[in-house]
Amino acid sequence: MQDQSTGFRFQLNCYSCKKAFEVFEGTQAYDRAKRNRKGMYYCEDCKNRIELEARLELGRRLLTGRD
């Protein structure tokens, strides 16, 4: 795999926290950003937080029997 300090990268803004972050060539995030520059992108911290919240909500729904 190519060293991330060299090569192409995109600087994007996180849709949630509005901080700038970079995606490097060869990653799925880079490919998505290259195809759709105006999309909504999340930094790793926000992406992990959103995923955790979704899992917790699913667990709550399964335990309480709500739909």
Which SSEs are present, and which pair or pack?
Layout: E1 9-13, E2 20-24, H1 28-35, H2 44-64
Structure, briefly:
By secondary structure, this protein is of the alpha+beta class. Helix content is 43%, strand content 15%.
Features:
alpha+beta, 67 residues, 2 helices
Please explain how this structure is put together:
The chain has 67 residues and is an alpha+beta fold. The protein is built from 2 helices and 2 strands, in the order E-E-H-H. A hairpin with a 6-residue loop joins strand 1 and strand 2. The protein starts with 8 loop residues before the first strand and ends with a helix. The model has no long low-confidence stretch (mean pLDDT 89).
| Strand elements, count | 2
Q: Taking all residues together, what is the mean pLDDT?
A: 89
Structural class: alpha+beta
Fraction of residues in H or I helices: 40-55%
Element-by-element helix/strand order: EEHH
Taking the alpha carbons of the first and last residues, their distance comes to 44 Å
Radius of gyration: 16 Å
Low-confidence stretches: none
